[in-house]
Amino acid sequence: MSWLSKLFKQKKVELKASLVILGASGAGKTTLVRYLETGEPVMKDPRITLGIDIRQNPITISGWSLSAIDVGGQELYRESLWSLGVSQADAVIYVIDGTVRPTSDNVAFEVSKFSFDYMLSIVDIKTPLLILINKQDLVDMKPITTQESIELYDITDLVGRSFNILPTSVKFGDGVETAVFWLVNKIKENK
Ligand SMILES: Nc1nc2c(ncn2[C@@H]2O[C@H](COP(=O)(O)OP(=O)(O)OP(=O)(O)O)[C@@H](O)[C@H]2O)c(=O)[nH]1
Ligand SMILES: [Mg+2]
């Protein structure tokens, strides 16, 4: 039985929170939401998210009922909808495609870095921020490590923020448990 299925069985839901999931297009946001909703590996590729998807299926984890706001990562939505999503959420999950490196695809990396910096400019310093360095399963593409991401995205600059950076393969759920538990505990501290 997966960790999510076990947790789904816990009936007592005490606390509610909403999460907004942000990141450049293709990073794995919708895949993460599908994994959280089902607790199963996501074998069917999701379609590109058009606009904002306020999910109706609650995610029940460790006595918490989480609702997810999945926002499209394309430039149009970044400019028009990310702030709206952030304004509705108690915490932010930011998904980075770990296979995007300046050396392999400089344009994609610039978009990824710009999107990250934009997110920092709209998320309040007090809002818990979970940064996922995703697609770690694609070992042939040498995904960046969390240490490399700190340098590439200037993450050392996040003074005063409550944040964490963790490696994941959201398609298979690897690393998701640890990551979401961290976030839920941070939200609890903030409430
Ligand atoms: N191998 C692997 N593929 C992944 C992972 N996460 C996402 N993908 C794939 O990456 C592609 C994009 O995933 P999405 O979840 O649609 O990305 P998104 O961030 O929602 O993209 P937008 O909706 O355009 O903003 C899909 O083909 C997924 O199957 C992962 O952890 N590992
Ligand atoms: Mg999507």
Helix content: 25-40%
What is the first-to-last residue Cα distance?
A: 31 Å
Distinct compounds present? guanosine-5'-triphosphate, magnesium ion
Please report the first level of CATH classification, the CATH class: Alpha Beta
CATH topology: Rossmann fold
Instruction: Tally the helices.
Output: 6
**Number of beta strands:** 7
Q: How many distinct domains?
A: 1
pLDDT < 50 stretches: none
Q: In what range is the share of β-strand residues?
A: 15-25%
- Label the structural class: alpha/beta
Described by the principal axes of the CA atoms, the overall outline is globular
Going by CATH, the architecture would be 3-Layer(aba) Sandwich
Largest sheet: 7 strands, mixed
Element-by-element helix/strand order: HEHEEEHEHEHEH
Instruction: Kindly provide the radius of gyration, computed on alpha-carbon positions and rounded to a whole number of angstroms.
Output: 16 Å
The CATH homologous superfamily corresponds to: P-loop containing nucleotide triphosphate hydrolases
The overall average pLDDT, rounded, is 93
Which short descriptors sum up this protein?
alpha/beta; 36% helix; 191 residues; binds magnesium ion; Rossmann fold; binds guanosine-5'-triphosphate; globular
Descriptive overview:
The structure is a single chain. The relative contact order is 0.18. It contains six helices and seven strands; from the N terminus they run H-E-H-E-E-E-H-E-H-E-H-E-H. The chain has one domain (about 15-190): Rossmann fold, CATH 3.40.50.300. With about 190 residues, the protein is an alpha/beta fold. Strands 1, 2, 3, 4, 5, 6 and 7 form a seven-stranded mixed beta sheet that branches. The mean pLDDT is about 95. The longest helix has 17 residues, at about 105-120. Bound molecules: guanosine-5'-triphosphate and magnesium ion. Guanosine-5'-triphosphate (GTP) binds next to helix 2.
